[in-house]
């Protein structure tokens, strides 16, 4: 073995990392989608094919939204305003984004207040 192999790792290790990262990407939203399906009346453990199909739809939607956001705003940057602009005509999505952002701000304020309190 070379010292360079020890320092930088072998090609086999990189291939293993690429395989595992590819597999992780395939199941990004599986747990959330399973819970959503159950909440909408499906079985507790839906078919794997159903989850794969829904996940493909979600990932495609996110990709398309990001590509559109890149075209709307500053080059090579996605800003929150770009997402707002793209979903402005869908009242449900727009309201949900507003709710999530306001909840995020409230949580930040609560954490800050909690961290500012000094123990006696």
UniProtKB/TrEMBL annotation:
Highest taxon listed in the record's lineage: Eukaryota
Primary location class: nucleus
GO biological process: transcription by RNA polymerase II
Cellular compartments per GO CC: transcription factor TFIID complex
Alphabetical UniProt keywords: Nucleus, Transcription, Transcription regulation
Region named Disordered: 1-23
GO molecular function: protein heterodimerization activity
Amino acid composition bias (Acidic residues), ranges on this chain: 1-15
Keyword Metal-binding appears in the UniProt entry: no
InterPro entries: Histone-fold, TFIID_TAF13
Family: Belongs to the TAF13 family.
PANTHER family: TRANSCRIPTION INITIATION FACTOR TFIID SUBUNIT 13, TRANSCRIPTION INITIATION FACTOR TFIID/SUPT3-RELATED
Protein name, UniProt field: Transcription initiation factor TFIID subunit 13
Organism classification: Eukaryota, Metazoa, Ecdysozoa, Nematoda, Chromadorea
């Amino acid at each position: 073995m070379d010292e360079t192999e020890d320092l930088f790792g072998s090609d086999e290790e990189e291939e293993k990392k690429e395989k595992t990262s590819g597999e992780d990407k395939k199941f990004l939203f599986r747990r959330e989608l399973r819970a959503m399906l159950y909440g909408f009346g499906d079985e507790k453990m839906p078919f794997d094919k159903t989850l794969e199909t829904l996940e493909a739809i979600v990932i495609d939607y996110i990709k398309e939204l990001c590509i559109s956001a890149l075209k709307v705003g500053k080059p090579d940057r996605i800003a929150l305003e770009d997402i707002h602009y793209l979903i402005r005509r869908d009242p449900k999505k727009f309201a949900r984004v507003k709710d999530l952002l306001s909840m995020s701000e409230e949580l930040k304020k609560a954490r800050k207040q909690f961290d500012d309190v000094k123990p006696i």
